[in-house]
Each structure stands twice: as C-alpha cells, then as structure tokens.
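Researcher: Sit down with what I've pasted below and flag anything odd:
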Amino acid sequence: MEKNIPKILVVDDEEYTRAYFKGILPKDDYRVSFAKDGAEALGKWSNEAFDLIIMDIRMPVIDGMEVLKRIRILDEV
C-alpha cells in the first residue's frame, strides 16, 4: 500500500525563510514545494493541490491575502 504523504507549499520572498522551512520539515514525512512569490505559488497550486500552505502575507508581486483569495476561487471552479 502506498503511503499518502502530505504536500506542503511554503511561500516566502525571503530565501532564508524558505531555507529554514526546508531544514525543519522532515523529507520522509512531507513532500515540500517552495515558491518565492504569490505568482509562483498560484502556478504551483494550479498544477496540484496541497494539504497545507505556509505563506508570508507581505510579498511583492501578489501578497499572501490575494493569493488565498485566488486559491479559493480556483477551488470553486
């Protein structure tokens, strides 16, 4: 039987924050993807659904609140 590994998307414009989460989230327990801004996060979300999003609210391009609004719209379609 295949183990269902939770998928996490970490979104932050700061490289050190993404590196921090990469270091603390066990690779065997989670499948973690990273995005450097809201636009990249939306692109990743449109290709696959994640079980958890860890996201900065204040980011350039598209801020975190706007990303969440757009994800809700994508989920309704």
Summary: Residues 7-76 form a domain with the Rossmann fold fold (CATH 3.40.50.2300). The first strand starts at residue 7 and ends at 11. Residues 64-76 form the longest helix (13 residues).
